[in-house]
Amino acid sequence: MQTTTSINPATEEEIASYNRISIKTAEDKIAIANKTYLSWKTTSFKERAILMSKLADILEANKEEYAKIATQEMGKLITQSRKEVEKCALVCRYYADNAEKLLADEIIKTEAAKSYVTYQPLGITLAIMPWNFPFYQVIRFASPALMAGNTTVLKHASNVQGCAFAIEQVFEEAGFPKGCFTNLNVTSDNIEPIIKNKNIVAVTLTGSEPAGRSVAKIAGKNLKKTVLELGGSDAYIILEDADLEKATDLATFGRLQNNGQTCIAAKRFIVLEDIYDDFLTLFTKKMKEAKMGIPTDEDSYYGPMARIDLRDEIHEQVEKTIEQGGKLILGGQIPDRKGAYYPATILADLKPGMTAFDEELFGPVASVIKAKDENEAIELANNSTFGLGSGVITGNTERGEKIALQLEAGNSFVNKLVASDPRMPFGGVKNSGYGRELSSFGIKEFVNTKSVWID
């Protein structure tokens, strides 16, 4: 029997091994999920909300336990793991409180005696989720899907199966019927037959661009609806009227949060030339002072990356950028210590065509780019195949808003780091994917938007 093993990226020690299930076992579990769907879809919003609220209570009550699992499996700082679990509870409560209103019938005035739009569940949604927010990414999809009356199956990342099984257990403890939420610990080779399964009606994926293309191809061939949230290379424009202390604080936290492994992290800092040198000096100072440490230490600013191979991959991107003419300002050396650690790194004087400008850097590496004026800054920000998040740091919020509206991204924030919020839609454009999660837009992705006409 195949197994998958969780490795602590801070110590390189084995945490636990989990048995893979066969495609036959996966199909049996999907059959149970479908049987559950047939009854679950008939429950009231009130009944679903009671269970979803209880789920939130359990997450909060056991926050330390779940945070510890996430930190052990993927290296997230324990303080950030706690906040991740808290955010899961927030999403659960948002949909418990608002799903009925978000999916209420909409009366349409026509010549009919009665005409309206109603939103009905579809069936089983398959989620293929990443390791970087091992609890939140799952809850972000499952909460609206279940509140809409669908059931769900999960294919989680191999290195966070402890989190995956913990989430499955939480749903069970909250009282959700067996089959509402099911973890499928299968290999990637089994994704295609699972998507093809007649009872799977839709797929949502958060992950890399290649993974998104592969899943979309299979789903498209089988006419299954998809939502894809893929990579990002978020540009933050730093204008000459910005408060440099605030700008560099945001830049430092934005680049090192979750050990630099966030799709919507600030990655490319496009700085107007009037303040470029001052920004770079202060940013370098703060990145250098940020403490790289054990993720369970409360005073660590950032910890290890999730896996050794991911650390080695970003180091190769750094070295390639330097060979292409990029300037190494800070870091850029693999430390002589156990674990998947990589230091806070700054690459400067970057131009389109260089690896650190064009590619997503999924780790604690910042790209600093000089722009001669506002127009060139916007042009450089939009010169990317990605379009997930973007930002503007300025002393003039009206000016910032005008620029934000010109940035080609699904999210544009002024004087704040991009973050997901259950009240706002979340997703990207270009190679960052399509479709939306969260808010009314997210819950309506996987429903049948049905027109009803009564003459």
Question: Descriptors for this entry?
Answer:
15 helices; seven-stranded mixed sheet; Aldehyde Dehydrogenase, Chain A, domain 2; Aldehyde Dehydrogenase, Chain A, domain 1; six-stranded mixed sheet; 455 residues; alpha/beta; globular
Task: Provide a concise account of the structure shown.
With 455 residues, this protein is of the alpha/beta class.
Describe the model.
It is a single chain. It is globular and about 65 Å long. The strands form five sheets. A seven-stranded mixed beta sheet has the order 12-13-14-11-10-16-17, sandwiched between helices. Strands 7-6-5-8-9-19 form a six-stranded mixed beta sheet, sandwiched between helices. The mean pLDDT is 98. It folds into two domains: 3-230 and 432-454, Aldehyde Dehydrogenase, Chain A, domain 1; 234-414, Aldehyde Dehydrogenase, Chain A, domain 2. It has 15 helices and 20 strands. Helix 2 (45-61) crosses helix 6 (161-174) and helix 4 packs parallel to helix 5. It has 455 residues and is α/β, with parallel strands linked by helices.
Output the CATH topology of the largest domain.
Aldehyde Dehydrogenase, Chain A, domain 1
CATH superfamily heading of the largest domain: Aldehyde Dehydrogenase, Chain A, domain 1
Query: What share of the residues does DSSP label as strand, in percent?
Result: 15-25%
Major sheet summary line: 7 strands, mixed
